[in-house]
């Protein structure tokens, strides 16, 4: 069933009884061309593009819980392509271009809202760094504007411009950035993949990876053994655990990242604003709630909840930027499991084990990268060569010394 204004009208007239499920709850077959472990945004996007762009539809997506139960539904919904380094800049711009046509592509309302992303700066040194980043963006054809203090104040007068410790001097603006409804992304990709013959198997936990003569031949699951020609791992914060089933140790750590939403307010913040003197970012949802977050908790964890020290840290940074937040009540918080790589950039590559492919290490960039990640991973699985935009995201770059360290923090995952 294709969604349209006409289908909404006709189903409304007849009690909305003719709607079909968005996707089948499939029973796994004995064997597939490709098995994708992880039914989040990246896994579902990979399956969608494999079927749509590369004609490979004998694919299964295995999700141990329900579709969208992981990080794709546990983030702050921000999309942007304001990156500095050559490896990251073209990749995230590809993702932005895919976001811009995504809803028409898979016929689902993902609420893509290009309301702008503004990164504030508070010192001369930070202004120079943002100028460099903005110039790099524009050299790659990505939109960027450097705003002075007056321009930022005209746009966001409620910020604390006179903060004694962190006076706002300006900001770097990407108008094409914005937000997307996170769970709708998972639903749209799941629906699109299912329509093209992909099996989406929920409640199917991978418990082992079977190898014969050094090659992966399938997976042991809670629903029995399933064979495959190629096994693709897109398990986000659980990537290390799944990869260890094949004897592979990854250069990543798992950390919790918390996110928060406030009570509903009248329209307050038009776009996305990030604090330059601390890690805090905020936007306002269509329902009026402020959606915000900050740093990871800083220690290794597989829990989808965080600690109170980080809650306090995020609240302090938010109030330093917007004093009015002190009067806003927080309704709920949640945590996603981040797979933090050693240099803060992702991995999309074949592994040293035959028939085993990896999509991991997304750090803070996972949600915004969903379309490009899925397309590039599908390209790798279909053609066994990296898609040119993701060619820098090799697994062996850590051994070779070709790091993509966007923040310049060195090989310390919890600082990226």
Automatic annotation (TrEMBL):
Pfam families on file: DAO
- Give the matching InterPro entries: FAD-dep_OxRdtase, FAD/NAD-bd_sf, Rhodanese-like_dom, SoxB
- What SUPFAM superfamilies has UniProt attached to this entry? FAD-linked reductases, C-terminal domain, FAD/NAD(P)-binding domain
Q: What reaction does this catalyse?
A: sarcosine + O2 + H2O = formaldehyde + glycine + H2O2; sarcosine + (6S)-5,6,7,8-tetrahydrofolate + O2 = (6R)-5,10-methylene-5,6,7,8-tetrahydrofolate + glycine + H2O2
The chain positions of domain Rhodanese read 34-78
UniProt KW keywords: Cytoplasm, FAD, Flavoprotein, FMN, Nucleotide-binding, Oxidoreductase
Specify the domain of life of the species encoding this protein. Answer: Bacteria
User: Its GO biological process terms?
Assistant: tetrahydrofolate metabolic process
Which GO molecular function, any one, fits this protein according to its record? nucleotide binding
Q: Does the keyword Transcription apply?
A: no
Record's PANTHER family? FAD-DEPENDENT OXIDOREDUCTASE DOMAIN-CONTAINING PROTEIN 1, SARCOSINE DEHYDROGENASE-RELATED
Q: What is this protein called?
A: Sarcosine oxidase subunit beta
Record the organism.
Answer: Allorhizobium terrae
